[in-house]
Amino acid sequence: MVDDDSLLYRVYERRLTRELESYELPQHLGVIVDGNRRWAKASGATTAEGHRVGAAKIVEFLTWCEDLHIPLVTVWMLSTDNLSRPPEELDALYGIIKDTVEQIIDAGYCVRLTGSAEILPEEVRGAIGRIQEDAEPDSRLTVNVAIGYGGREEIVDAVRELVLDLGSRGLDPEQIAAGISIDSITEHLYTRGQPDPDLIIRTSGEQRLSGFLLWQSVHSEYWFCETYWPGFRRVDLLRALRDFCRRERRFGS
Fold first, then answer.
1. Does 144 qualify as catalytic in the annotation?
2. Distance between CA atoms of 199 and 70, rounded to whole angstroms?
3. CATH number for 85
4. pTM (two decimals)
5. Among the options 3, 5, 82, 91, which is catalytic?
6. Residues 183-205: pLDDT tens digits?
7. Picking from 40-54, 132-146, 183-197, 214-228, which range would have the lowest pLDDT averaged per residue?
8. In a designed cystine with 54, which of 28, 36, 59, 95 is the match (CB 3.0 to 4.6 A)?
9. Could you tell me if 93 and 78 are in contact, meaning their C-beta atoms sit under 8 angstroms apart?
């Protein structure tokens, strides 16, 4: 196993970086940051420490994306399913998420919250909202931070919002039904106005989406990594991008 600080590792990383220069990289990269708890268990650390190390990795990961000129990243930090975890774990998670959002904004990135804010505690929503209000991002990288996010919930929210929008115009049920289309639903998603993800990365060895960007990922490429998220390295990202660039994308055909 090559040590991160070894010459061989750095040479391999530089080679991958040079190889990618001849390719068009993803314009929207999604990442499911999975494995914090398992990393903590394997390392003898607490669950909260696993989440903190994983959060720090997110900030580091975004600097790699910036260096590679990837303009849009969606990071799934907290799913609707995660909300059933023990209260003490959730309390720690909320604090870590708030601190991470602040660090991402302090780095100059544009943060866009993605998810159902209503299901989060009021103090969490308020704290993140205040952080965003004080931000002065230079928009060189936009980061969708998916908190309280579920793919099915997003589609339901989009359809509900669309129906209410159509109904407010005085349309009858048949006209409302006629106004529901792929394009009109897309316009009411959390990611409205953004391109769909070209590539979605999931760590920890799990090979499923778990509801991540269900609507938007219909033509996405996937890359699954055995490494737990806190152990994810820049070379892992480069390998994922190289694999993506070598594929022939068929977009469902």
1. no
2. 11
3. 3.40.1180.10
4. 0.92
5. 82
6. 999 999 999 999 999 999 999 99
7. 132-146
8. 36
9. yes
